[in-house]
Amino acid sequence: MLLESVRLGPGPVVCACAVPECPNNASARDCQQLIASLSRLTTPGENRDPAPALLVLGADELRALIDGPEKGIGCEERSPPPPPVEEDAYRPALIARVGEMAKTKPFPTRLNGLPLPFFDLHVDRSKCTLCGACKRTCPTGALTLVAEHTRRLAFSTRACIGCRTCVNRCPEGAISVDAVFLPQTLAEGTECIKMEAENICCKNCGKPVSNPFRLKKIETRMRSQGVVGSSCGSVYLCEACKRMQALFS
Q1: More confident residue, 48 or 185
Q2: What's 217's DSSP letter?
Q3: SUPFAM superfamilies annotated for this entry (predicted)?
Q4: What domains can you pick out in the chain, each with its CATH number?
Q5: Which residues, other chains included, contact 221 with Cβ-Cβ below 8 Å and sequence gap of 6+?
């Protein structure tokens, strides 16, 4: 059986025929029949890469190797896997199509019987600290964070693919993503401001430090750990002034 397998071209084969009391209920006859089924397979062509060595431990495994659509030994013609579809290959065309459809009333919610793959993001303003974790982990750049005098978190429904990475990475649990079709926003391509806050400036030098939500949360955590006095006040200082305070305290 082993020589016949090698003659047919699969390469080195190690076949361990199962005994009757095998837990898989396989038998030597099963293995013999499966080896015999190799005769229907064609020998690989000259340009075909030699097949790897196979370790067959039982009838079930051998059957899977022979008959499996992806790993079958005798699959002479194998369709290569389809190339990964880049987001830019279809999403702009879909957005353009939806933009035309959005001119009609009522607005469509499905295309060719399928729900439209567009999403909206919601931020719980009582929890969000504008830390930027969602923006840093978004794989499509649907979230942007402007950190100037006013810290703003903006969202683009055009770019969002609904992966919910931002939901899972938000340390405050402040984000939710829902499948929502906003035709006007989608057609215009505008970004929506989901959260914003004026940055607090350093008490000593006036340099912007961070937004009040984040600083207040840090101060609350410090006080819950028993930190009091000027140490808590240092939260509202820039890094340079913090070092100066630590140096002369």
Answers
A1: 185
A2: H
A3: 4Fe-4S ferredoxins
A4: 2-67 (no CATH), 117-198 (3.30.70.20), 200-248 (no CATH)
A5: none
